[in-house]
Structures are given as C-alpha cells and as structure tokens.
Amino acid sequence: MVDAGVMVSLSNQLNTVMGPLLTLGDSAPVKLLYMQTDLILKNVSKHIQLSEREKEYFLSLLQWKTLNRNEPLLRPGEICRTENFIVGGSLRMYAVDDKGIEHTVMLGIEDWWISDLYSLLTKQPSSYFIAALVPSQLLQLNREDLEQLYKKVPGFERFFRIMFQNAFVAQQERIHQNLSLPAAERYAAFLKKYPLLEQRIPQKYIASYLGMTPVFLSMLRKKMASGHLLK
Q1: How many CB atoms lie within 10 A of CB 151?
Q2: How confident is the model at residue 13 (pLDDT cuts 50, 70, 90)?
Q3: Which of the residues 101, 124, 158, 229 has the least number of beta carbons within 10 Å of its own beta carbon?
Q4: How many Cβ atoms are within 10 Å of 211's Cβ, its own excluded?
C-alpha cells in the first residue's frame, strides 16, 4: 500500500484542478486516485521492480496535469521540461511547415509516455507542438526530479533507458517505412503495431502520421476492407 502522505499530495493537486470533492474522505475519488497511480506503477513494473519505499518516493515526485481538447502541452520555441505519462485521453506531437501543413510525428493514449525527447535531453527549444486531442490527464515528472530519481532509485535509469531506446527504434522504423514501403503496407504495419489507435485517433491524424492525405487513407481503408489493396 502506498503511503497516505503521497496520496494526500496527489489528491491536493487534483483538488486544485477538479474541485474540493476530490478528497481523501471521499471513497470514490480515492479509488480513482489509486487507480491512476496504479496505472503508472504497472507501467514501470514492465521493466523494473520497486520496493514500497521506492514506489512512494517516485509517486511523491509526480505532478498532476489536465488538458482541455486541443490545449497545447508544448509549443515550438519552448523547452520540454517534463516526461509525461498519459493517465487518460490522447495526445499528439506535430510540426507545422512553412505552408501551414501539419506533420504528426507521435501519437499517445493512456498508459503511454509522451515528450519531445530531443528538447528534454538537450535543453534546447522544441520545434514541435504537443497537444491534447480530447480532454486528457497526465502525471508529469520534471527533468530535475528525474535526475534525483536516478540517484535515489537507480533502477529508473534502466527504465528510462529502455523507454528512450524503444522511442528511438520506433522513430527509425517509422522513417524507414515512410521512405520505403507502399502506403498499404505502411498502414497495415501501423494497425499491427498499434491496434488500439485506429479507434481512438481521428483518421486525419493517423494519415498525417503515415505521411499521406486523409482522402487517400480513406480510399485505402475502403480498398483493404473489400480485400483489394492500392498499389
């Protein structure tokens, strides 16, 4: 069981953004709060095991963040200062070119992490937007606290190393597919790797992520549904 003091801290953050009904005296909100912290702890446990004290310390560093639909978490020119775990909702990271066309480079739903790693690690201004597609809730870990976490709970160096490696591999794989695979194969690979995103992310953003227009993706989906692939 996580220390009550940690839960009070997170509860107070929830009170600030969601109102006074979210208190440790209300059983339903408390259950929701534990579910939210349980989600991130289960995510961490995929790669490392923590003692109860390490769990409590980790949770004590987290900050609660809510976003409205289309509200930006990060804008071009800003430095990304947090790793962001999605508790609920969905987000995307994208750039806008000089013609005003948006290019989606990352998508995320609950139980995923999202940030501009280049900006976070180099402390350089970002070139990207990160914005909520629907009302979303995040647990954030800022860079300074991340460094302290590495020192006090060394296992998190392994956790975030694996995360960063996986993100790099996924980015390289996406670039390779967009450059070398036909559209139908890119879409099929996307569905295989991210089966949950098809129902959660608007088609126009999936099309942007795959490097095609929404109209073309719509045609492609119809062809695939009928058993005929576009060449």
Answers
A1: 9
A2: low
A3: 101
A4: 16
- Do 58 and 3 form a contact (C-beta atoms < 8 A)? no
Is 86:114 a contact under the CB 8 Å cutoff?
Answer: yes
**Which residue has tokens 């059983």?**
27
Measured between alpha carbons, how far is 203 from 209 in angstroms, rounded to an integer? 10
Average pLDDT, rounded, for the chain? 86
Distance separating alpha carbons of residues 161 and 158, to the nearest angstrom:
5
Closest residue by Cα to residue 131 from 91, 84, 88:
91
Q: Which of 124, 111, 64, 116 is nearest to 92 (CA)?
A: 116
SS3 82: strand
For the chain, the residue count is 231
- Taking CA atoms, 226 is separated from 55, 220, 230, in Å, by 50, 10, 11
Rounded (10°) angle between helices 143-152 and 155-180: 130
Angle between helices 52-61 and 27-44 (to 10 degrees): 110
Q: What is the pTM of this model?
A: 0.83
Rounded CA gap, 229 and 231, in Å?
6
